[in-house]
Specification:
Blueprint (H helix, E strand, L loop, with lengths): L1 E3 L2 E7 L9 E6 L5 E6 L12 H4 L2 H4 L9 E3 L8 E3 L2 H19 L4 E5 L6 H5 L1 H8 L3 E3 L5 H11 L15 E5 L3 H4 L1 H14 L2 E6 L11 E4 L5 H14 L5 H7 L3 H8 L4 H8 L3 H13 L3 E5 L9 H15 L8 E3 L11 H4 L10 E3 L3 H5 L14 E5 L3 H4 L3 H8 L5 E6 L4 H4 L3 E4 L8 E4 L5 E5 L12 H12 L11 H11 L5 H7 L1 E3 L4 H4 L59 E4 L15 H7 L3 E4 L1 H6 L7 E6 L2 E9 L7 E3 L35 E7 L2
Parallel strand pairs: 7-15, 8-14, 9-10, 9-12, 10-11, 12-13, 15-16, 16-17, 21-25, 22-24
Antiparallel strand pairs: 1-2, 2-3, 3-4, 5-6, 5-17, 18-19, 19-20, 21-26, 23-24, 23-26
Helix pairs in contact: 3-20, 5-20, 6-14, 9-12, 9-13, 9-14, 12-13
């Protein structure tokens, strides 16, 4: 610690599911309380800037509604009747129920379920060690990264890219498919610096005129799921007008001649009809990136959350290869650096205990799994027992009605380890209080940058909450696997093991440094020594089902979705939920600025800023269906229907509706949230969740 303005400062990292993973300086006050949270100025990516919701983290840590004691259900499921229990009694009950379920149906009937409520490796991933030791059902993580990571790796062959700090050295920053002002504020830090210092142009591509687009020199609002068409038309212009870097293409890419021939019919006129952009907008964008060698493509997750999302990502990524932008500092492309960190989690996750014969269940299809869908269950036993950490599936998962229906099953026992009484916790049989990131040790890696950051415990938790690791250890003892490798080890010891295997010292050494920068050298990061495929070439012709990718499902699951319809070259592929006469609108469920998935929806400042759940509609669409600004509207599809309030907004295309933020279900009029409307069918080729790909009808509420 050091002293700053006479206030003790603790150093850590933001734990939330965000690529920025900001390095934080936390004001430590008397009596174990914190004050403001600041971005670390000496971290070259965070650069002193963090989002407002994390700056006010004291609202979460010291929230009066935090869970403080273990609770056991005392009434009907979801009724809200609880009785307090000791930790020992609660863990005893969980273990008893798990053993009874296992005795009846076999070990696969138990399904530990987790995700990214914390991105700390120890507290997030230790649950897998218990899973493997007990041979519980496997967990195919599909809900977030699959579509985007798959599309990127299909082209580049590796999940890494140009140093994201190079945005500040660019002459054109293209922010594609991410509302960075709301979700990755540091992207804007470096892009704005490029504008101020170099006169760089900022291009923003998204499905509505959001806060990031208001910062753009060129903003392109297109229809959801049509990014591939835009990318193809841009590359058509590059070849047509002599702006393609042919020497680069010949040296570094697999089939430039085939790509050029394929793109001959993908004209701006063709793309305009698909995207809703004008021909002039497409031509202008193409000329800008074609004549600006230092163009940096910052590719987000949002535009990949379509059923054709992997194709969209691959197509957008391909532009930088056609222009040869990779050759220049401040040029190239970046999506995630998750491939550079290489921390060995073998011991942490109990990888050597894993049995490949155990079935894998798709995280995104939890609703189908809990309601007995044989295909989703991989024709195995029902799930009758669950341990849930770091996620709120009753609120954030697709096909919400099925999810809730499943949790209400009398034969399902669910234990939820949480910080607040979320909608998932409210449906549980046992609820255990969890610590927050300042109250335990952990280590973080930033997919949006290049740092591994230590997160040491800075304050004591209130009496009651325990870290995830403690719950895993307590259950391991009761379930008879505490003697297996990886158990009985503290969080610091696990961190020591991972750091030592990577040659990065230990916990104490990293505590002094606070973070370590693992950005590869320029030539490696820009793939000037070759792309990640075996031949070193960027692939315009991806092997959609054969390429190894971080999110590729195991052989037991195989490829997903209509993978036989995926294109040979970058293209627009019509596997999305197209609007039709019955469902004339395309719905995107975009993130809100003050929430992060379902987190922060409990804090007063976030709720005040966001107001209420709304649906953005173009004024002309609203007029046609008799809706005025602020009206209650019903929105639905075959999965269900919900009520929202209309916000008339000219910043969306006709036929497009946008709902920002995952509000608590209870914040909606009928107690059902936006994910009633989202589907859980697995997109090609490696699965995922197409949250922004929904067709709906909209009408005045009765």
């Amino acid at each position: 610690m050091n002293q700053h303005a006479k206030i003790a400062i603790g150093h850590t990292a933001c734990p939330h599911d965000c690529p920025s993973t900001c390095a934080l300086d936390v004001e430590l006050l008397d009596s174990g309380r914190i004050g403001r949270v600041h971005g670390a100025r000496d971290n070259t990516y965070t650069a002193g800037v963090i989002c407002a919701k994390v700056a006010r983290y004291a609202e979460r840590v010291h929230h009066p509604d935090r869970l403080l004691k273990p609770l056991v259900r005392a009434g009907a499921k979801g009724e809200g009747a609880w009785k307090e229990a000791s930790w020992e009694a609660a863990l005893d009950l969980v273990a008893e129920k798990f053993l009874a379920a296992e005795a009846r149906f076999g070990s696969e009937t138990v399904w530990p379920y987790q995700y990214a409520g914390t991105m700390g490796l120890v507290q997030r991933d230790s649950i897998h060690r218990l899973r493997h030791a007990k041979k519980y059902s496997g967990f195919f993580e599909s809900i977030c990264t699959n579509l985007a990571w798959t599309g990127f790796v299909m082209g580049a062959g590796a999940l890494c890219g140009a140093d994201p700090r190079e945005m500040a050295k660019s002459d054109c920053v293209v922010i594609w498919g991410t509302n960075a002002v709301a979700t990755q504020v540091n992207v804007m830090t470096h892009a704005i610096r490029a504008r101020k210092e170099r006169g760089a142009k900022i291009v923003v591509i998204d499905v509505y005129d959001n806060a990031t687009m208001k910062q753009a020199d060129l903003g392109l609002v297109l229809r959801p799921g049509t990014d591939g068409a835009l990318a193809c038309a841009v590359m058509h212009v590059l070849f047509r007008d002599g702006l393609a870097d042919r020497p680069y293409l010949e040296k570094y890419t697999d089939d430039p001649a085939g790509l050029e021939a394929h793109l001959a019919s993908r004209t701006p006129q063709w793309a305009a009809a698909i995207t809703g952009l004008t021909v002039d907008e497409i031509e202008t964008f193409a000329r800008l990136v074609g004549t600006t060698k230092r163009s940096f493509f910052r590719l987000g997750y949002g535009f990949a959350r379509q059923r054709n999302g992997a194709v969209n990502m691959h197509a957008a990524l391909s532009i930088a290869a056609v222009t040869g932008a990779w050759q220049y500092e401040g040029g190239g492309a970046f999506h995630s650096n998750s491939g550079i960190f290489r921390l060995d989690k073998t011991l942490l996750e109990g990888v050597k205990l894993a049995d490949p014969r155990i079935r894998m269940l798709d995280q995104s299809q939890i609703g189908r799994i809990l309601t007995g869908d044989a295909e989703a269950l991989r024709h195995g036993p029902p799930v009758t027992a669950m341990l849930i950490q770091n996620t709120n599936p009753a609120n954030v998962c697709p096909e919400q009605r099925l999810v809730k229906q499943g949790f209400l099953r009398e034969d399902l026992f669910a234990c939820v380890h949480e910080q607040f009484m979320t909608e998932t916790a409210a449906l549980a049989d046992v609820v255990l209080p969890a610590t927050m990131f300042l109250e335990h040790d952990d280590i973080y890696r930033g997919g949006g940058h290049q740092h591994i950051i230590l997160g040491p415990k800075l304050i004591d938790p209130p009496a009651g909450p325990r870290p995830n690791l403690d719950v895993i250890e307590g259950l391991a003892e009761r379930l008879g696997v505490a003697d297996r490798p990886g158990f009985g080890i503290s969080a610091r010891a696990h961190i020591d093991v991972m750091l030592a295997k990577r040659g990065l010292g230990d916990f104490d050494a990293l505590a002094g440094e606070r973070w370590v920068d693992l950005q590869p050298d320029f030539d490696t990061a820009h793939f000037l020594t070759g792309f990640g495929h075996t031949d070193g070439k960027f692939r315009f012709r991806p092997d959609w089902t054969g390429t190894v990718a971080p999110a590729k499902p195991p052989k037991s699951l195989g490829a997903f979705g209509p993978h036989d319809r995926l294109p040979v070259f970058p293209d627009h592929v019509g596997v999305i939920e197209e609007a039709d006469d019955t469902h004339p609108f395309r719905l995107a469920t975009s993130p809100a600025r003050s929430f992060l998935n379902s987190s922060f929806s409990e804090t007063p400042s976030a709720k005040k800023r966001e107001g209420r759940p709304e649906i953005m509609l173009h004024p002309d669409d609203a007029a046609e269906i008799g809706i005025k600004d602020g009206d209650r509207v019903e929105i639905g599809n075959p999965r269900g229907e919900i009520v929202l309030h209309a916000r008339l907004f000219g910043g969306v295309k006709r036929g497009v509706a946008v709902a920002e933020g995952i509000w608590p279900n209870a914040a909606h009029e009928r107690g059902e949230g936006i994910n009633v409307l989202t589907g859980a069918d697995a997109p090609a080729p490696y699965g995922g969740a197409a949250f922004h790909d929904n067709r709906v009808w909209i009408r005045p509420a009765g």
